[in-house]
Amino acid sequence: MSSDSKVILWQIGGTGGEPSLTNMQIQRVVRTEDYGQTWQTTSFWNDAAGTAAAGGTTSVKIIADRVNPNVFYAFENSQARVYISNDKGKNFYRFGIGGALSSVSVGNWANNTFGLNVMYFNALRGREGELLVGGADLGSFKISVTNLDGAPAAWNVTSVRITPSGGASATNTSTHRIGYGLGVNADAENVALYRYGRINAVNGNTQTGTGIFRSVDGGATWRKISKTSSNPDALNMDNHSYQDVRAINGDARTFGRVYFSTGNGTGAFRWGEMITELLKSPISDKVGLELALRAAEGFLDNADLSEYPQEFIDALILAVGDAIDIIGDEDADQAAVDMAIAALYLDDGRTVTLSGPAVSTNEAGATVTYTVSIKNMPAVTGIELEFELDGSFMSSKDFNAIGFGYFGDGNYGTPIFWKNDGDVWTGKVTLLNMDGGVAGKADVLEMVFNVKEGVIGVTDVKLNYVRLSFDGDEVFPEVVNGLVTTEFVQWYSPYDLNRDGVVDLNDVTWALQYLMMEDGDAGWDAAKAADVTGDGRVDIEDLLLILANYTIPYYG
Asked: Average pLDDT for residues 89-115, to the nearest whole number?
């Protein structure tokens, strides 16, 4: 689909077997500009002049430019060549790829599109004519196409290598999937690159070299951001058996967040705040310091600072100034960098609070609400929590996430995952905010329960566990008032003046005794129970309401 979503190219697979590049032939490529109402064939040419038609059985992999809606690319199988269109996919012209890819033996770029030995392509968002290539055992490359607004004869296609040379074996360097996301400095010229594969240099041996890697300098250096399986062939990361990674890409708005999909039966879509390892154990160099500085400056610019202790704000501002000086000092030693990083990680009094009523009645249809709140927070993007309650007093009704959405659905059609041990119920919920997070002080979750009719006594609702995620970091904050004790008391009808459980002649007599008395009169303390309208006087309207509810018991 084109970058403006108005043109769709459909590459119809061949017959027999699962789809692969070897049967995605150019004679099977069609296009539409009316969302599928009509379809047209495309033309492929073996030269820039458009005079030599390409063979219809040539296999290609097609992707769209992420900036120019007129441009599509079709990479030829088995050759370092690409077909390019700048007329919305009507005509494709073939070009050799110059630079690094021209000097390698490409071989078969894909055994099949669902295996790991596949050339994987990804057009760069915000960068016209730039593409990333995961070349399986060949490593990673960036392809650049210039002069796309001109005639095909003026186009120039070149490539550069962005990982070390892998040679003929994956025991050195391989890139099976490659993608990108927001860079450290949030500008279009400094995207963060993510790749799934292997690099020989990691920890000095190939056994620890498979996983997910990130580069913040255009591929000059790579940092491994996933753990490694003890079995290098299992492709496990962080103790999860993902089998293989089918696609990978970074978040366009949050540095350090990476998404990847998995296959071979798992099929799950995963995402992780891979910056977590950096913030928990900060990188002791100026890149790590710049990351910490960016997080601190973003907090000072966006948080409601009135919610934070002034001494914390003053210390953070001082730490930011020191960090800027260190970054600008070419002679800064390692100790100075380490101290500057540590100074940016201050205790900011982040807390989570559970609140709820101290007293509730037990009338039919009564509900009780408990609220989870955060305080002194930068932008919180994820919340995991576990709470506990006594099911003999109440049952689940509604859960209202405030500023967040639920991650998946729990059992029984609710967003909460429940388990119980007798009357003790434990609920778990995960909340996500993908629009920048919720900062400062805020209520984030309302838990509404039905009160069991007629129940009397005291019970506790408590938070057992809370974990927050923000800017890639994960913390277990202090929980303040994580336990709320609620007393459930007997409910009576407002017309049952003597609280004996029924509205009868005794209540009518009570009202008649104080008829025409007003607030401020002597004896009003006893009379005000008969003021059922609450207007400060006992009159005929109050008496009529009591008679209208005659013989209605307290539980009715």
From this structure: 68
CA distance 120 to 175: 9
Supply 518's token pair.
């007003």
pLDDT band at 410 (very low <50, low <70, confident <90, very high): very low
What whole-number distance in Å separates Cα of residue 90 and Cα of residue 44? 9
Report d(CA 506, CA 352) in Å as an integer.
50
What's the pLDDT score for residue 24? Answer: 67
Give the Å distances, CA to CA, from 397 to 416, 449, 450: 11, 5, 6
Is 432 within 8 Å of 467 (Cβ atoms)?
Answer: no
Residue 125 neighbours by CB under 8 Å, 6+ apart: 66, 67, 180, 252
CB atoms within 10 A of CB 519: 12
Mean pLDDT of the chain: 76
Contact 338, 284 (CB under 8 A): yes
What is the three-class DSSP state of 456?
coil
Give pLDDT, residue 171: 42
| Polymer length in residues for the chain | 556
Q: What is the pLDDT of residues 288-309, one digit of tens each?
A: 677 667 767 766 776 667 766 6
Q: In which element (H, E) is residue 289 found?
A: helix 286-302
Q: pLDDT band at residue 155, thresholds of 50, 70 and 90? A: very high
For the four alpha carbons of 273, 277, 281 and 282, in that order, the dihedral sign comes to negative
**In the predicted model, what is the mean pLDDT of residues 477-500?**
80
- Only one residue has tokens 């509810």, namely 549
SS3 of residue 309 by DSSP: coil
In tens, the pLDDT along 178-210 reads 888 877 665 556 688 888 877 665 433 333 466
Give residue for tokens 């609280």.
499
Residue 41 tokens read as 């064939």
| E strand spans, 8-155 | 8-11, 29-32, 40-41, 43-45, 60-64, 72-76, 81-85, 91-96, 98-99, 120-123, 130-134, 140-146
**Would you state the structure tokens that stand for residue 546, as one six-digit string?**
């009591």
Q: Which of 86, 63, 88, 58 shows the shortest CA–CA distance to 73? A: 63
CA distances from 44 to 11, 56, 72, 151 (A): 13, 8, 12, 16
- Cα 76 from Cα 96, distance rounded (Å): 10
Nearest to 31 by CA among 46, 43, 23: 43
Q: Kindly tell me if the per-residue pLDDT of 534 is higher than 60.
A: yes
Angle 286-302/334-343 helices, nearest 10 degrees?
20
- Hey, which of 45-59, 187-201, 353-367 has the most confident mean pLDDT? 353-367
Across 4-90, the runs of DSSP E, i.e. the strands, are 8-11, 29-32, 40-41, 43-45, 60-64, 72-76, 81-85
CB atoms within 10 A of CB 328: 9
Domains and CATH numbers, the chain: 286-343 (no CATH), 351-489 (2.60.40.680), 493-556 (1.10.1330.10)
User: Residues 407-415: what's their mean pLDDT?
Assistant: 52
User: What are the DSSP calls for 377-391, one per residue?
Assistant: EEEE-EEEEEEEEET
